[in-house]
Specification:
By secondary structure, this protein is an all-alpha fold. It is built from 10 helices and no strands. 86% of the residues lie in helices and 0% in strands. It is globular.
Length: 276
């Protein structure tokens, strides 16, 4: 499990989990889960088109992801954000299906692009993933304070001179970058699961931003580690375990939050009864 080709698997999956946890924290905070679903689908279409043309899938993936992210941000400013995101999602899924239908390796290509190939990662993919991941983390560190303010208090951010639309475009560019490094490894669908399940769970256990951010990364790493180990032992797809674990962690987090609210309500009621 920890030798041979599996070493690259553990390394690159951990890097993807860290980026997914960090970027996903702001995705959930900004209520942009739909965007986090649409942009990886655009990357899937770009990678499929690049494979059809015989060029690097990473180039096609990155180009389509960035164009779709910026397009959603620009068009969303002039109309309903959810409607624009939905149209982008359907368009990119359609293009991806068309590109793959022209390919002679349809079945294997669609499986790899949608669900990833985390158990077959090469050394060159490790280097590319590390480089893109580092750029993504640095971008989040630089944008952390204004991004947090525009996510939580957009009116206050505007009053302080921050352009919320510009921050939205910057954030979407970071999502596109995270997609570019992640889709070849975990796939378009599983990246969405990591970017929403882990940070959504973290918000149920932590209140302060940095604590929630750290918890998001820790949960994302736990999900991919458990998924890889379970897949290795059972020979079941990694994607199955990532999806199930993401949902399980999220449900657990919501149950904990509900129990905590109920307990706080009972304590407050008891104190009020004693006071009267």
């Amino acid at each position: 499990m920890f030798s041979g080709f599996m070493v690259n698997t553990w390394i690159v999956a951990t890097m993807v989990a860290v980026v997914a946890g960090v970027v996903g924290f702001f995705t959930v905070l900004r209520r942009s889960a739909f965007v986090a679903h649409a942009v990886p689908q655009a990357g899937f279409a770009g990678a499929a088109g690049a494979a059809l043309l015989g060029i690097s899938t990473l180039v096609g993936l990155g180009a389509f992801a960035l164009l779709s992210a910026l397009g959603i941000g620009w068009l969303g400013r002039r109309g309903r954000h959810d409607a624009v995101t939905a149209l982008a999602l359907v368009l990119m899924l359609g293009l991806g299906a068309l590109f793959l239908s022209w390919s002679e390796e349809y079945a294997s290509a669609i499986f790899a692009l949608l669900f990833g190939e985390v158990l077959g990662v090469s050394s060159s993919e490790v280097v590319a993933t590390a480089a893109l991941g580092a750029v993504c983390i640095v971008a989040v560190v630089i944008l952390y304070r204004p991004l947090l303010l525009t996510s939580v208090l957009p009116e206050v951010a505007e009053a302080r001179g921050l352009r919320t639309h510009r921050m939205e475009l910057c954030f979407l560019a970071v999502v596109a970058l995270a997609t570019t490094m992640s889709v070849p490894v975990v796939g378009a669908l599983l990246m969405f699961s990591l970017m929403v399940g882990a940070p959504g769970t973290a918000r149920s256990f932590a209140v302060r931003p940095l604590q929630a951010l750290a918890a998001s990364v820790a949960i994302a790493i736990a999900i991919v580690w458990i998924a890889i180990a379970a897949s290795y032992e059972s020979d079941w797809p990694v994607g199955f375990f990532v999806g199930v674990l993401g949902a399980a962690f999220f449900v657990t987090g919501r149950a904990w939050a509900a129990w905590r609210r109920s307990r706080s309500g009972r304590v407050a009621g008891a104190r009020l009864g004693m006071a009267t």
